[in-house]
Description:
4-stranded antiparallel sheet, 6-stranded antiparallel sheet, rod-shaped, 37% strand, mainly beta, 3 helices
Amino acid sequence: MSHRAVRRTFGALVSAGIACLFGAVASATPPGVMALEADPCAGVLDVVIVDVAIGATAKPWVGGQALIAYDTTHLFFVGPMSGDPIFDLPIYFASNPVLGHIDLANGIAPGGGDTNGDVVLSRLVFLTLATPSPCPVADLVWFRSDPVFETRLSMEDGTPINPTLQSLNPLSITDGPTITPPADQSWALPLLAGCVIGGNPGFATATSPCGGAPVITWQRSDGELTLTAPYRYLDSPIIIEWTATDDCGNSASADQVIAVTGCLGDLNGDSVVNGADIAIILGFWGVTPLYLGDLNCDGLADGVDIALLLGNWGPC
């Protein structure tokens, strides 16, 4: 049996409906193995869906039963869900939230034939309660032994199949990463241009209780693909969204604001937009790699820049 887990918030689980949880990705299990596996990452108050599934090459069988235990400090058992459609005959189910025990038995209705492996017997819904320490903690859900009953499958003639049992893979329950963006910036327009060139916004920092250092990515609201690309007055304020993603796939984001200030069109810095500034544009007319005389910083000093200047004509 394998536990294949999908993480969702509890509210999303209720609002989206039970049907939305049947898209869990299949996890491979060795032949004849009942293995309890889970998506290794979840956040506090996430819902973890555990698929109790049978190894891919199991012998033909018509029903199965499992005795399972779980860590009540970190998990709350919400309830069972149906497995794959062929198991339309629930035989027995019981849970003890004090002991953290789950007993279940499902079968195939008469006339339904039998099945081999690679199918889900039942789905168990857990709500994560707290972050274990250290993280991750193995065996938050596991098979338990009983002096009378056992975890097994049954063939059509009643012959028991006793597969190898494999406990839950490590499950990390974390609060997700914490990210600190660089300080907001306010940069004045330089002389002769309409953008700040070579601005240094800094870089975010992040930590996470899960795994190593989180991966930090960013996105600029002006669409530029490098942090060193020009920061245009016309795009100000420019928002840089910083995102940290940890080894568990959890992410956190924070914004940094870059403001470009000044008087667009006042290329000579005399606080007046007038003919002298037009002369500067004409002096750099055409391709201008350093954005000199280029108010919109598109790499050209041209009529578009003249139009922008005329729109700001007069005292700053």
